[in-house]
């Protein structure tokens, strides 16, 4: 007969086999904070084994596995929070501004302006009320053309063409269309 260690959850008070990272009942972090008692291990079919089966537990407690997984999760979160933010280069911003100037001069006033996101992957295009009088196929063609042109410029500055997104907005800023890798969507 061997001995098994049990911990009492500090939040709900339920006894858990020793070595668990989280309470099976309430999900609270155990982290060795509960009280620990040792009692003789019971034979299969006894109350302890039945409790384990009812809770869906099999075999021994996770022990070091949970500790390593928790440590790895914390380290990954720390690295992710300090990852450098990708910003659009000044040359990229200038090229988009030149394209905007050309497009607004050539058009019949339908295109009001453009804004580039700080990461250089999303382009906000502002259109006049004439957008609503265009047939649906022309609106989709316009959105696809804007994204194709934007992707052609963006790829020169290291942005993957599949990651480019064009949001088309009306005068009030409401999104009326979006074109991205998964197709064109018109908002009604």
Work out the count of structural domains: 2
Molecular shape: elongated
Sequence stretches where pLDDT stays below 50 over 5 or more residues: 41-50
Instruction: Give the strand order, joined by hyphens, for the main sheet.
Output: 4-5-6-7-8
The biggest beta sheet reads: 5 strands, mixed
Helix proportion:
25-40%
CATH fold-level name of the largest domain: GMP Synthetase, Chain A, domain 3
Number of DSSP E strands: 8
What is the CATH architecture term of the largest domain? Answer: 2-Layer Sandwich
Q: What share of residues are in beta strands?
A: 15-25%
Structural class: alpha+beta
Order of helices and strands: EEEHHHEEHEEE
Report, as a whole number of angstroms, the end-to-end distance. 72 Å
Whole-angstrom Rg = 30 Å
CATH class membership of the largest domain: Alpha Beta
Arithmetic mean of pLDDT: 75
Number of helices: 4
């Amino acid at each position: 007969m061997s001995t098994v260690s049990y911990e009492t959850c500090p939040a709900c008070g339920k006894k858990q086999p020793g070595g668990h990272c989280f309470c099976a009942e309430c999900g609270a972090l155990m982290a060795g904070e509960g009280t620990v008692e040792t009692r003789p291990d019971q034979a299969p079919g006894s109350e302890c084994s039945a409790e384990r089966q009812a809770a869906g537990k099999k075999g021994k407690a996770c022990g070091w596995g949970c500790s390593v997984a928790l440590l790895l999760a914390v380290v990954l979160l720390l690295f992710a929070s300090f990852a450098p933010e990708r910003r659009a280069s000044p040359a990229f911003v200038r090229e988009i501004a030149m394209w905007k100037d050309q497009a607004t001069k050539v058009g019949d006033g339908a295109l009001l302006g453009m804004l580039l996101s700080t990461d250089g992957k999303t382009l906000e295009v502002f259109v006049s009320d004439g957008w609503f009088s265009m047939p649906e196929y022309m609106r989709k063609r316009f959105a696809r053309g804007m994204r194709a042109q934007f992707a052609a410029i963006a790829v020169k500055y290291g942005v993957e063409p599949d990651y480019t997104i064009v949001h088309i907005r009306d005068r009030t800023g409401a999104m009326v269309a979006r074109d991205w890798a998964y197709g064109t969507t018109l908002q009604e």
